Amino acid sequence: MQEFDLLTIGNAIVDVLSRTDDGALDALGVEKGAMTLVDEARAIALYGGMGPAIEMSGGSAGNTLAGFVSLGGRGAYFGKVAADTLGGIFTHDIRAVGAHYESVPLRGGPSTARCMIFVTPDGERSMCTYLGACVEFGPEDVDEAVVAAAKVCYFEGYLWDPPRAKDGIRKAAAAAHAAGRDVAMTLSDSFCVHRHREEFLQLMRSGTVDIVFANEEEALALYETRDLQTALDAIGRDTRKVAVVTRSEKGCVVVEGGAQTAYPALRVADVADTTGAGDLFASGFLRGYTAGLDHGSSAALGAAAAAHIIRQMGPRPQVRLADQPEFAALLAGSQPAVVA
């Protein structure tokens, strides 16, 4: 078994992105800025109401892995697709970025998951997700040898929606810790946190998870507070190793025990689409972390990756980031120039 720097586990989804405006969102009944789960009938209706669209592989953990491999890391992925056209697209795309992906496709069940992403002129994205084959992900899809071979096993909080995925994640976490590896999670979405708050806290407090990624709204939702400092203090107590709380243009705060250190974001004047910003921040931070860089250098990599992705449509890099001069400097442990 080859060694991997990062294994990500997530909902294997094909994204359908379309530019729109607030009026169209209202007409379709789409909640702006949220990720809403829909059934297949609603997914078909929304697709019919979209304007011209771009289809590309997505899913939070898949995006993070694509960014991570683009930054020169060695990566593997677990996620369930169906044996259908979209499943073939996802499989091709995740392998094409250079990731190890051998999950067995589902036959005779739900179709491959898709996410309709409506992007408004302010760059905000509003998502409606049909989980499809993702709900069939379970313990049998976890290859413990791959888990043990990865420095970090990272999963998305969205996986707490499909019920069988929980058992798969717990199996993966046990295998990772048995091999002396770290387990990381992203809280994914504040609405996801509201649905699974107690279970997320149990994962953290039990030591099942070592590293936590959250944006500001997710951290506030986790601790049912509107005071960020209260949330930062609490997440520091509850996280076994490191918590990273992102704050959009305000940067991020890295929390390690009682220590809290703020790091800046990079200025971006021409935001095209915020889809994948948090996913790519995690790519950069974890690339630094698995390479043994300090938290400041890892945060700088995350900020640069997030700044890069929001200047394009779609959540995965269209160029190899490790080949870009600003990223090469960061990977060498140098502080970045401003990327505008």
Brief synopsis:
With 340 residues, the protein is α/β, with parallel strands linked by helices. It has 12 helices and 13 strands.
Spatial separation of the terminal alpha carbons: 41 Å
Oligomer: single chain
SS-based structural class? alpha/beta
Across the major sheet, the strand order is 5-1-8-9-10-11-12-13
Q: Main β-sheet, in a few words?
A: 8 strands, mixed
Question: Considering DSSP H and I runs of 4 or more, what fraction of the residues is helical?
Answer: 25-40%
Q: Mean of residue pLDDT?
A: 93
- Rg, rounded, reads 18 Å
Shape: globular
- In N-to-C order, the SSE pattern is EEHEHEHEHEEHEHEHEHHEEEHHH
Q: Segments where pLDDT lies below 50 for 5+ residues?
A: 336-340
DSSP strand count: 13
Provide the descriptors you would attach to this structure in a database record.
8-stranded mixed beta sheet, 21% strand, transferase, globular, Ribokinase-like, kinase activity, 38% helix, 340 residues, 5-stranded mixed beta sheet, alpha/beta, 12 helices, Carb_kinase_PfkB-like, 13 strands, disordered C terminus
Written overview of the protein:
The protein has 340 residues and is an alpha/beta fold. The protein is built from twelve helices and 13 strands. The radius of gyration is 18 Å and the shape is globular. The N and C termini lie far apart (41 Å). It holds the Pfam family PfkB.
What does the secondary structure layout of this molecule look like, with pairings?
Elements: E1 4-9, E2 13-19, H1 22-28, E3 35-37, H2 40-49, E4 54-58, H3 60-70, E5 75-78, H4 85-96, E6 113-119, E7 125-130, H5 144-149, E8 150-156, H6 165-178, E9 182-186, H7 190-205, E10 211-215, H8 216-222, H9 228-238, E11 242-246, E12 252-256, E13 259-263, H10 277-290, H11 295-309, H12 325-331
Helix pairs in contact: 3-10, 7-8, 8-9, 10-11, 11-12
